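G., before I forget:
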Amino acid sequence: MKSKETYWSENLRLIFICLAIWFTVSFGFGLLLVEPLNEIRLGGYKLGFWFAQQGSIYSFLALIFWYGAKMNKLDKKYHVKD
Amino acid sequence: MEELKLYTYIAVFGTFALYFAIAWWARASSTSDFYIAGGGITPLQNGMAIGADWMSAASFISMAGLIAFLGYGGSVFLMGWTGGYVLLAMLLAPYMRKHGKFTVPEFIFDRYYSKTARIVAVVCLIIASLTYIIGQMKGVGVAFSRFLEVEYDNGLYIGMFVVWVYAVLGGMKGITYTQIAQYVVMIFAYTIPAVFISLQLTGNPIPQLGLGSTLSDGSGMYLLDKLDLVVTDLGFKEYTTANLGGTLNMFAYTISLMIGTAGLPHVIMRFFTVPSVQAARASAGYALVCIALLYTVAPAVGAMARLNLMNTIEPAAGENLVYDERPQWFKDWEKTGLLKYEDKNGDGKIQYTADLATNEMVKVDRDIMVLANPAIANLPNWVIALVAAGGLAAALSTAAGLLLAISSSISHDLMKGVLTPDMSEKNELLAGRVVMTIAIIISGYLGLNPPGFAAGTVALAFGLAASSIFPALMMGIFSKKMSGTAAVAGMVSGIGVTMLYVFQHKGIMFIPETSFLGDMEPNWFFGISPNAFGAVGALVNFGVAFIMLKVTGPAPAHIQALVENMRIPGKVSAAHAH
């Protein structure tokens, strides 16, 4: 019998992974590592600048949908769908 | 000019007629309709409504202009105002939807079993929402006065009337469907000029790609490289690397905007309108799609507008524009006082440089960039008319969401919740409508007579949401033991620290004379600007709450059971909770 506690801890693990990526693409690539990344070019964009003004937003989008899909699976597994 | 005026009237009043028709069709008949649109909004509809709710006059009119002049430093707004949705989707929205109530203060009351907590939440909500609304009302007045040559005051009255009709009649239900229409108007108005301009400058119709492409002027140079070159030649900071007050300040600023976004009640309450927890998660995703559509275009709009402006004034190095030959849009904006030229060296030409002594463009207001952009790029008149309708849609949709947050917190939390609990549903609905009418009048008054602190209001709204509401909600969900006493102590100290910092540098209620440390960078705490201080306030909130929790003991067992129930979707788990 799978319990509520394991549902919650699986959710927390997912949130932790997502927020680690959330932090890396914005505060990491867009701010703290912006100077070394700017040495690399993505077309006319400097890579660090691209992460700060474009890439981080695309990553946020991917994260929210990925988290939603994973959680829907988790809801099914634990039979907690509304 | 006559043709432009005709198109603008058609666009503006055509969209108003549409909003009225929707309001009539979707009028509210119960408190559930009025507060949460009956709870039957689909995730995609909700995503679009959140987009319109969230993207205000500031996002539509001001943000690209800020980026145009801040360059890389403007990234804090792009990351901050989108990253908050990741936090909403994972840390707040699903659990608050599961709990299933009408307002944010009501959630705080249930979770922290304390009327004090509820009242603190209502006060934060009203201050944050009212300060935010002033900006929207000013946006409406400016749009009318610039595009329709209607007096600022009369423009404001028209705007107040339009919001009053559909917000009071329809409540959340009417607001939701109107916001969907407003989102569509807004996004077309924002992206169409951007597509045209990107095509002109780079030959690529997708602005997000155009910004990273080469110029189509035959030079083969990348747009951003050219922009860097042009601005550094004139002594400005390099566009793609210009920092905003240092890395730590940018870090704190971004985090403040992110948690402030996640803590703004008028956004959170939109998640109560969907039928399930799964739908709440999906809404956050669709909302960010709708928002990202504008937010990824904004950096292109900003950079291209800056380049176009520079190229107009100095078409080739050393060949400056002769003032008497300036284009029509230049004259139009000079009339508003937002653009000012002063011939310092008397040569009749325009010199625009970073050096204050020789710079002759003595005023270039950032806010005019989006509105003037289509004219600078010589786009057809119907595009300019569309931008006017879009700017109004952005301001009105956000104002309506804020008004609902204010009226529900008074009619539902203060009146029904605290003062007169035996009020009937019919009377509560009436009270909601009356309070909303009063709120419209007050915000209209503040729009007509902007108080001295209007300029600093964004800092205050985000600072309050970031330092009080977000931490209280997050701890309420992720710490079962968090008690009411500890949470209230945390909220009060979080706001206290943030307000003290903002006021000591910006003046009490933003009256500069009362500022006791001065608005000077050397006095800033680790160089963090007052706008970015919400992050520190939030840390103080968390810290105080956990220390108080250790001192005063955990929340009672039934509250801990409530939290467990909140964490898991579905009715099945609710039945097993006890």
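Residues 4-77 of chain A form one domain. The mean pLDDT of chain A is 92.

More on Monday.
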